[in-house]
């Protein structure tokens, strides 16, 4: 069902009032307005305050729409004209782009949203950022952020670091450094963290080195080292271990990270990390998708030597996708 009304040229009536200077709109297949681009100043009233959607162009602005709507005509995203303070469940924070749940609560906040290019570097973008302090109860830190994601009830869902930031998180297993960030359960306990370096973890099947060689850092909603609410290991990714399993039938099986072509060099080989998880209610370990009883199977862990050439420290300074050894 159409959720807007075209008025005179450049004006559109929506649930939020009349938008002026509408240069373009896009619609869902059913005809409902999905987004619009603006060339005049407008103000939108939201749960996080008055927002001024982007209406001018500049050299660092991404090619994005000014306002996004859901099919019912409710605002679910706003690219802001400039960074402004917005009200969040944890206080006022600076933002250049915000996303909402369809019921109006703040979903995700981006502190900055500049387009990295040959004319605007990550270092330039960093100059615009400011460090923020957090005390999450189990850990505290101060760092520049890429963004924060919230649960619908206002609790923090994840905190994603700005590129180049590194913080130390206190986990149930001790301190873990991360350059990506962390996620929380809705009740506030640590859910997951992305280790910056391989970290040795004690698990129900023995010691494993947790590290995801393919961590991308886009956001910290889902990370490779996962905990249960009561602080036990729920899952991890390993690129450095073999796991031998003796099944209930006495059969020996061996699992290892899989080799794959290096994403940057066709003639080089790297590995895809192997997922290991634990279901404490079923008392099982899930290794590379295969489930085994923790009480009825035997487990032995060993060292896996990654194939391929290893980068030099100079290489690592310029590339995050490598075979660190």
From TrEMBL:
Domain of life according to the entry: Bacteria
Name of the protein this chain belongs to: WG repeat protein
UniProt source species: Kineothrix sedimenti
């Amino acid at each position: 069902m159409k959720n807007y009304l075209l008025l005179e040229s450049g004006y559109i009536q929506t649930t939020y009032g009349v938008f002026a200077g509408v240069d373009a709109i896009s619609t869902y297949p059913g005809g409902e307005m999905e987004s619009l681009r603006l060339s005049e100043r407008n103000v939108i009233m939201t749960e996080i305050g008055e927002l001024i959607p982007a209406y001018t162009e500049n050299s660092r602005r991404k090619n994005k729409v000014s306002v996004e709507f859901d099919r019912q005509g409710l605002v679910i995203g706003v690219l802001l004209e400039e960074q402004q303070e917005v009200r969040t469940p944890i206080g006022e924070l600076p933002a250049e782009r915000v996303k909402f749940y369809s019921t109006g609560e703040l979903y995700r906040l981006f502190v900055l949203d500049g387009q990295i290019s040959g004319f605007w570097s990550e270092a330039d973008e960093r100059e615009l950022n400011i460090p923020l302090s957090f005390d999450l109860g189990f850990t505290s830190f101060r760092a520049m952020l890429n963004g924060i994601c919230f649960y619908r009830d206002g609790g923090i869902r994840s905190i994603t670091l700005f590129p180049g930031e590194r913080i130390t998180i206190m986990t149930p297993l001790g301190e873990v450094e991360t350059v990506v960030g962390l996620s929380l359960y809705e009740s506030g306990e640590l859910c997951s963290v992305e280790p910056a370096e391989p970290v040795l973890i004690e698990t129900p099947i023995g010691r494993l080195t947790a590290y995801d060689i393919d961590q991308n850092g886009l956001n910290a909603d889902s990370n490779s080292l996962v905990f249960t609410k009561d602080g036990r290991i729920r899952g991890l990714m390993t690129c450095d271990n073999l796991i031998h399993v003796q099944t209930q039938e006495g059969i020996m099986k061996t699992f290892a990270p899989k080799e794959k072509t290096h994403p940057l060099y066709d003639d080089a080989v790297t590995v895809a990390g192997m997922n290991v998880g634990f279901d404490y209610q079923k008392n099982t370990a899930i290794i590379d998708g295969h489930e085994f009883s923790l009480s009825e199977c035997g487990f032995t862990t060993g060292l896996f030597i990654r194939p391929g050439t290893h980068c030099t420290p100079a290489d690592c300074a310029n590339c995050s996708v490598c075979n660190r050894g």
